[in-house]
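Deliverable D5.2: sample structural annotation.
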Amino acid sequence: MTELEVPAVIADRRAGSDRRLEQLGNFLEGRQTSQLLRETACVYATGSVSRGESSQHSDLDLFVVARDTTFSRLDAIKVNARLIEATEELQFPPFSGDGEYLVVHHLSELLHRMGTRQDDATNSFTARMLLLLESRPILGTAAYDGIIRSVIEAYWRDYADHIQEFLPVFLANDILRYWKVLCLSYESHGTPGNADETAARRLRNYKLKHSRLVLCYSAVLYFCWLLRSRRSVTPRDAFEMASIRPLERLELIGHEVDSAVTRASIRELLELYAKFLHHTDSGKLELLERFHHQDYHADRREEARAFGDEMFKVLVAIASDLPIFRYLLV
């Protein structure tokens, strides 16, 4: 195993994110929020804080998921009130969309809507993907673990018949579908009508091709890496994937890979991502002002292209000769 040095900005952001999550958990515990969850629901974070990438400008994305219907609408209102109070007291930016995403998802929705038309329309698909790809528990850890295991069992429904050669195609397809949904969401904003909209579109594209790309493809790469040393991926493997932050999945592969070329590509991915974190460490208005300038945008666009190229090189190096690879090209 070869050590892979993590850029200082990434290590610093992780430490800061962990402190913010600890503060949030302590605040909510002090407001008796756990009693409201009653071991049947959990609160978890997503976004830059959960990925270990937050700065002082990062907002907070929180989800509440319940294992059963005993967690009532009134319970949800009480919990959400404490979440709003916590963000105000700890000086997080206000919830996006005026709190429109502060809704409670039930495990039954995440499971029974898989693959249906309602999956996207009700936001269940996004909640399920974020749960598996970037979430960190804040309260209700036992319920959180149980919910993740139940979702993984649904994706591994055919595992018992293919224990020695199970490929996580169902989940991999959903992860890649989520990536395509994110790309379509970017395109759905249409052609910008003025300079401000152009700057906003450039910033969205920059973030899409870094944080969203690594979110999805780090999970796919993790499964492919496991398949290089074994012919099957177990539900426990999937649970471990969900517990590892996106960049840490890349680091794990970089530490263990034998190929010096692939290790160099992963090192380059980390360096480019450190640049991304540096260039996005400002308030939104300042970021938009920078992206008004064509030269600045051109430099960031080149960094994003290089990041995507390196990610593809790692994917091909690790997965191109595996049975699962053909499913990743659809």
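Annotation notes: Residues 167 and 232 are 6 Å apart (CA to CA). Residues 195-229 form the longest helix (35 residues).
The annotation will be released with the project's public dataset once the embargo ends.
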